[in-house]
């Protein structure tokens, strides 16, 4: 039984234009392939402004930028939908899961 | 097989060159993503969950050994060393980069292949019987007609922006292996009493959110009128199909809403115009020219080989005997057999083939045939022209490659769409569910004993895995961000086509293998004998006993 979600935050994510690799926006404004590096944003106005800004600023580098919803348990552990869990695991993990080299 | 002429070749090369420029303009910002997206989709390039995916067209599922080797080369050089054969007889590369795609299109063009019209609201790859040209039960070879349709629909300016995508399937045999009842247009080639060729013409079939079986428009459309009539159908659909709601935009909805009688009346009226257009008429010379591309190869004169086949089926080598029983189909030429390669081993996801395996299959197709390979809509491959006296050798080679699993059209010959492992539209994963069912049903004798039984899995309601028409269907659904699976029973894609009915509440991935196991055990008890297939039992007894078996102690 999964733990109940107490609150939600958002992490900005998108895909690298050249190869589609999933990336997350860090607190420093860089983009990392690790979900765990992603900055958690909770104010909706900040989130929306940041999405709009990054969509314009990164248009040659990252595509499909959106704010993904992250549930948080009472202990602050993140809870993701299955889709976002699989995205966060990344492409290499997907290949290994399917029986291929990373 | 059809060979491109100079103009065809120029078009695909030009298209690859254009795409190279479009990618450059996207990367330097002259094209925005909104402007670029339709351009990449017109070249079959999707952006999926983890990466780009390139869908390559394989017209009516027919490949030459040279083309298959080139696909292997692309997989090895530009992708991750494998490709995935789909239910539309296409091949998908799951990991190309945007920057490599123009080079891939060049490589495809060099062997007369492309990815044009594998996406978008246009007429998609025309599909057909995977035994076309060789089946013992074939009435007329469907490939020339598929090629006419391919040429007519490729770059047809009027049908480049249809309300929705459009799929055509053609069969020329007594048994439907092309699932014509669930296509926008389904054609069954017939001969009348006088021996004239014509088409039993169906339209309005489809799966997805609203599964519908096609309605018959004509009992017998004359051969010469194929394009004129199809042009009329497409004109009516293009004009009247709904564009306000993508879930209601397929031709099946138009025909349901309008009524098939009224749709037919409009098509016939339009046909009165199109039938007089000489460009749409298949005159005897054009037919002869096209059929010349598909003349049978130089078969040897051989004994029929039936004694050897019988001996093999009764022999001590059980693996070989089972393989002969389930993976072979009768050939029209004595001494030859159609060999089906099961891409449903326990090692790779359904429909996947590595680059090395592609090369090995191409070698086999040349050594044991005329260099042809066919793709089936059940995500298997076919070596169409194997000499019966070479079957043992071919079996051994396929065992070495992992493609001799004796399960074609059996319960472990599972269709599975890419699902949430790859697909951006998915609700749930398909491949691990297929693999866990395969592991549960590892006993080859039992699988064989259960007889013909199709099990199809889709990761969402788009139904690329044809779950609606699986004898057992599994549909992935999303419940509050988690994967669940709905079971359906009683579907069929064959001549007795039907849409499966939902069994009950959705189950978790972990519950599915056990549920399938209980369904099969129930069938084994209920069947009147070894000859009563699973589908016949479901139709005879209804869902009740199966529902009871799956949910009784589990609700
Ligand atoms: S059925 Fe759904 S999940 Fe599967 S490939 Fe089609 S769109 Fe993707």
Explain what this protein looks like in three dimensions:
- The complex is a heterodimer of chains A (102) and B (555).
- Chain A is an alpha+beta fold and 102 residues long.
- Chain A has helices at 44-57, 82-97, and strands at residues 7-16, 22-25, 31-32, 62-72, 78-79.
- Chain A has one domain.
- The radius of gyration of chain A is 14 Å and the shape is flat.
- By secondary structure, chain B is α+β, with helices and mostly antiparallel strands.
- Chain B has four domains: 6-109, Sulfite Reductase Hemoprotein, domain 2; 134-294, Sulfite Reductase Hemoprotein, domain 1 (2-Layer Sandwich), CATH 3.30.413; 311-401, Sulfite Reductase Hemoprotein, domain 2, CATH 3.90.480.20; 415-551, Sulfite Reductase Hemoprotein, domain 1 (2-Layer Sandwich).
- In chain B, 36% of the residues lie in helices and 17% in strands.
- In chain B, the strands form four sheets. In chain B, strands 1-2-5-4-13 form a five-stranded antiparallel beta sheet.
- The longest helix of chain B has 22 residues, at 6-27.
- Classes of the chains: A alpha+beta (102), B alpha+beta (555).
- The A-B interface holds A 15, 17-22, 59-60, 63-64, 80-84, 86-87, 90-91, 94-95, 97-101 and B 26-29, 32-33, 47-52, 80-82, 95, 97-99, 347-349, 352, 420-422, 426, 428-429, 431-432, 478, 481-483.
- The structure holds iron/sulfur cluster.
- Iron/sulfur cluster (SF4) binds at residues 417-419, 423, 425-426, 458-460, 462-465 of chain B.
């Amino acid at each position: 039984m999964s733990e109940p979600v107490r609150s939600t935050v958002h992490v900005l994510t998108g895909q690298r234009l050249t190869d589609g690799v999933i990336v997350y926006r860090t607190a420093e404004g860089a983009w990392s392939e690790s979900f765990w590096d992603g900055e958690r944003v909770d104010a909706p106005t900040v989130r929306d402004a940041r999405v709009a800004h990054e969509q314009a600023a990164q248009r040659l580098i990252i595509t499909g930028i959106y704010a993904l919803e992250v549930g948080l348990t009472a202990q602050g552990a993140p809870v993701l939908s299955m889709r976002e869990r699989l995205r966060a695991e990344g492409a290499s993990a997907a290949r290994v899961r399917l029986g291929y080299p990373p | 097989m059809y060979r491109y002429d100079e103009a065809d070749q120029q078009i695909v090369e030009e298209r690859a060159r254009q795409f190279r420029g479009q990618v450059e303009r996207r990367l330097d910002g002259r094209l925005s993503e909104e402007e670029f997206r339709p351009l990449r989709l017109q070249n079959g390039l999707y952006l999926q969950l983890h990466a780009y995916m390139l869908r390559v067209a394989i017209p009516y599922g027919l490949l030459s050994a040279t083309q298959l080797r080139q696909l292997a080369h692309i997989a090895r050089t530009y992708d991750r060393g494998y490709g995935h054969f789909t239910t539309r007889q296409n091949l998908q590369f799951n990991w190309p980069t945007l920057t490599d795609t123009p080079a891939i299109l060049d490589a495809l063009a060099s062997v007369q292949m492309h990815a044009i019209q594998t996406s978008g609201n246009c007429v998609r790859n025309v599909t057909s019987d995977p035994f076309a040209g060789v089946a013992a039960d074939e009435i007329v070879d469907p490939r020339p007609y598929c090629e006419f349709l391919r040429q007519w629909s490729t770059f047809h300016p009027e049908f480049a922006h249809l309300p929705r995508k459009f799929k055509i399937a053609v069969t020329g045999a007594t048994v439907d292996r092309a699932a014509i009842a669930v296509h926008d247009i389904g054609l069954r080639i017939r001969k009348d009493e006088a021996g004239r060729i014509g088409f039993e013409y169906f339209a309005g079939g489809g799966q997805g959110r609203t599964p519908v079986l096609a309605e018959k428009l004509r009992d017998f459309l004359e051969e010469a009128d194929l394009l004129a009539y199809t042009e009329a159908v497409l004109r009516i659909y293009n004009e009247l199909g709904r564009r306000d709601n993508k879930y209601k935009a397929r031709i099946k909805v138009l025909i349901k809403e309008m009524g098939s009688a009224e749709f037919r009346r409009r098509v016939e009226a339009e046909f009165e115009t199109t039938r007089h257009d000489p460009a749409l008429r298949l005159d005897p010379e054009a037919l002869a020219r096209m059929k010349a591309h598909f003349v049978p190869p130089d078969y040897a004169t051989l004994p029929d080989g039936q004694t050897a086949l019988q001996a093999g089926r009764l022999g001590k080598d059980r693996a070989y005997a089972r393989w002969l029983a389930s993976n072979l189909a009768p050939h029209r030429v004595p001494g030859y057999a159609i060999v089906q390669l099961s891409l449903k081993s326990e090692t790779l996801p359904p429909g996947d083939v590595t680059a090395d395996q592609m090369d090995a299959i191409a070698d086999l197709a040349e050594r044991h045939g005329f260099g042809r390979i066919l793709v089936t809509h059940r995500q298997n491959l076919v070596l169409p022209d194997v000499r019966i006296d070479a079957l043992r050798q071919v079996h051994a080679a396929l065992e070495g490659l992992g493609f001799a699993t004796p399960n074609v059209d059996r319960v472990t010959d599972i269709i599975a769409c890419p699902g949430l492992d790859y697909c951006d539209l998915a609700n749930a994963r398909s491949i691990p569910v297929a693999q866990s069912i395969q592991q549960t049903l590892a006993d080859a004798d039992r699988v064989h004993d259960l007889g013909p039984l199709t099990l199809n899995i889709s990761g969402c309601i788009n139904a690329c895995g044809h779950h609606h028409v699986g004898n057992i269907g599994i549909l992935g659904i999303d419940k509050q961000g988690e994967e669940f699976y709905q079971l359906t029973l009683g579907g069929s894609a064959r001549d007795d086509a039907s849409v499966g009915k939902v069994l009950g509440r959705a189950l978790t991935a972990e519950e599915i293998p056990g549920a399938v196991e209980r369904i099969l055990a129930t069938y084994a008890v209920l069947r009147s004998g070894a000859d009563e297939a699973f589908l016949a039992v479901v139709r005879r007894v209804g869902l009740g006993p199966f529902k009871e078996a799956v949910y009784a102690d589990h609700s």
